[in-house]
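Help wanted!
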Amino acid sequence: MSKGLPKRSEDYSLWYNELVKKADLAENSAVRGCMVIKPYGYSIWENMQKELDRMFKETGHSNAYFPLFIPKSYLSKEASHVEGFAKECAVVTHYRLKNSEDGKSVIVDPEAKLEEELIVRPTSETVIWSTYKNWIQSYRDLPLKINQWANVVRWEMRTRLFLRTAEFLWQEGHTAHATKEEAIEETELMMNIYAQFAEEFMGLPVVKGIKSENERFAGAVETYCIEALMQDGKALQAGTSHFLGQNFAKAFDVKFASKEGGLELVWGTSWGVSTRLMGALIMAHSDDNGLVLPPKLAPIQVVIVPIYRSNEELDAIEAKAHEILNALKPLGVSVHFDHRDTYKPGWKFAEYELKGVPVRIALGPRDLANNTIEVARRDTLSKQMVNLNEVDLKTFIPELLEEIQTGIYQKAFQFRQDNTTSVDTWDDFQKVLEEKGGFISAHWDGSSETENKIKELTKATIRCIPLDQQKEEGSCVYSGKPSSGRVLFAKAY
Amino acid sequence: MSKGLPKRSEDYSLWYNELVKKADLAENSAVRGCMVIKPYGYSIWENMQKELDRMFKETGHSNAYFPLFIPKSYLSKEASHVEGFAKECAVVTHYRLKNSEDGKSVIVDPEAKLEEELIVRPTSETVIWSTYKNWIQSYRDLPLKINQWANVVRWEMRTRLFLRTAEFLWQEGHTAHATKEEAIEETELMMNIYAQFAEEFMGLPVVKGIKSENERFAGAVETYCIEALMQDGKALQAGTSHFLGQNFAKAFDVKFASKEGGLELVWGTSWGVSTRLMGALIMAHSDDNGLVLPPKLAPIQVVIVPIYRSNEELDAIEAKAHEILNALKPLGVSVHFDHRDTYKPGWKFAEYELKGVPVRIALGPRDLANNTIEVARRDTLSKQMVNLNEVDLKTFIPELLEEIQTGIYQKAFQFRQDNTTSVDTWDDFQKVLEEKGGFISAHWDGSSETENKIKELTKATIRCIPLDQQKEEGSCVYSGKPSSGRVLFAKAY
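Answered by r_m:
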């Protein structure tokens, strides 16, 4: 019934790739590294967008739209920014095709060469700050809190559906503030919003923290992040929020007249989450039977599958199914009655398991006679018979969905607890990393040199310096030099 | 108080450009032909998206996402399609930048040349049909009804904000069907949905019709459209829906096993509306004082402006304003209380007029004493005193918004009636076109030759062959040859 999914324990990576394709989430396109997000996958992304967009607006942000193309020279204006992105930029050099001389094919028209090449945005700081220069004159124009939903392109060499694709969808917030304090507050606010979204909607526990210099966004003064742990013990960066200081204000000369009458550089932030979250959602919860979706993001929360041998039986079941639909839909429950006669119940059961539908209701003739339904939970794969004479579906189903949502989170939380290990020696570090994986909490001397060396030796990187931990003196797990606190190491996606 | 807008009667084109900028809708970016859609403009677009998306989903369509890039060779697979789009394609040829030898600038890395150039999608038929080939095997996979919200790029030489930009935002629907009849039905359905959206939400009367061969989409068998009339007497194509026949199925070899056991080519449609609709919305209703927005798309439907001389007065007004907010918000009315003390009431009045807010409520100390409010309508610029002892705002405001919505439509409808002229001679055709503009209903012999000649002589084109008119024999207004019905000519955006 598993529709031929490989087992996680045998080949986690293959399991992921096959699951993404078989559950109709996404597939590779003819263009190297670019994916097609299929309707079922896209509807999950739409649910994510809806909640995030609401949270952004509730905290005073507005959406806008900035150009796809960035003049090559813009990218160079912020030194570390260009260094971070130049190596993976899609470059537009021409603006026209024409027929080849033999008329058999279409070629790039050499006469239609752009004066200045354009970069397809890998991120929009440069084009946005060049615009902000005109929008910001006085303290009255601040804060400016704008978000955009957009596609971006980073020419990655090794790509994986959702996790690392040449083109991906994301939102990028870009804000401008009068003071450093306010900008830092915004940076932290957005990290907290991301964490809240991940935990409440995705059922994904995350560690909030700060990136080491090595992992910092190109152009940021400080990068805040949320880090999650996948079932194979690898970490996944689920969202980042950058305090840009005055770096982009300097690069694009964005100044404002202060209340006191001075002319000051603006302080900035930027923050983003992407379709990578789809990868996190899939890998954090799913099992060998397929997807496990948290009810709050599931396109279909409840599916009703009829079990019948004759048309008369189907008619009676349909009547009952519509009663259930009519009871649940007004409550905002997304419920689907699958009355297709081209597929058998067993096929449908496997299909909805594969697609992670949280609750499945099976309805047969005996259920009608007894006024019962069989309710199956996707997350625990458990079933129960519900007697409708005793139970009101209008409270039972919403409560069950809530229970599943909480259960999924708790399971992932427990997994992370079980797979976060404190180590104090380099031997233990290597041993835990190799045998168990997960997050390793260890002392670090604070130098890029040590971080690079550890990465070179073990492939583990510092995922973050967690924000919510107590200060603790110690010595670096690798160099033995003094350390003022533990950081989280892991191999990462 | 008009914030320096030019008058429509003096320079319509300048009036439009200035209005788009001053009302904070959009502006030109540093990249030629690409616009920045500002938060206020974008929020109107979001309202459009929300309604259209709902209408698409209610008619069985799902959203998905396909790649931004199209291999150059794909574009060539459908002959007339490549001819239509090759001349205005942004072409990606490289995937990396590097430092120049002197280290002073960043250049395109000549070693990072793509094997096959990629086109930034001008429309997605080719990449989508190449995907559909894998998705469609049997009649069970049909119909396939997918939409995507995306950015597209057409390298236009003369651009205008919203109306014609190198990059624009749109939705593009792409459906696949088992029969010709079903595909034509879908094409017509989507044209009707566009018409319904334009009329009900944008307050924009449209003519539904079919394009002549000259104006047909490159790759379509038939193009349906909705055409609207702007205040300067020029027409604007507001949406198109294409019956693709089996053209793309042939080009990409998309066949299905029919119920009867045969192998048949799939029938297709595609349909789209874009941020061009923003241009139509602005030009159809606005006046010399600024935007006039239909309430159903207005980001702010009602604004409350306090008028006061002391803080005590403001406190009392605030209390009343919050009463009004609390009464209207639960009804779904978007109402904003502008209590900024950095601007005077007169400035705010002009600002909200410029931004097209449908209803403005002014609240001063005398209003508090009398339990009245002053209500101003943006569309008619009329004011009335409303006595709250006699009138219940909870019914008054929603009714007023409805009245404004209807009024805006009716005004535009009347304008179109007054500016649609039936002509039967070539002299009249030229005279009406020059002196009055608008839609000209005239007989046409059905040939591209005549249409081209008329365009050459007058710049007028056939906007559409209207669907809802009676058959009428006549002779072509230009060639005198027989004609079986009138078509609509106009100069167009």
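OP: Thanks! One thing I noticed: Chain B touches chain A through 64 residues (CB under 8 Å).
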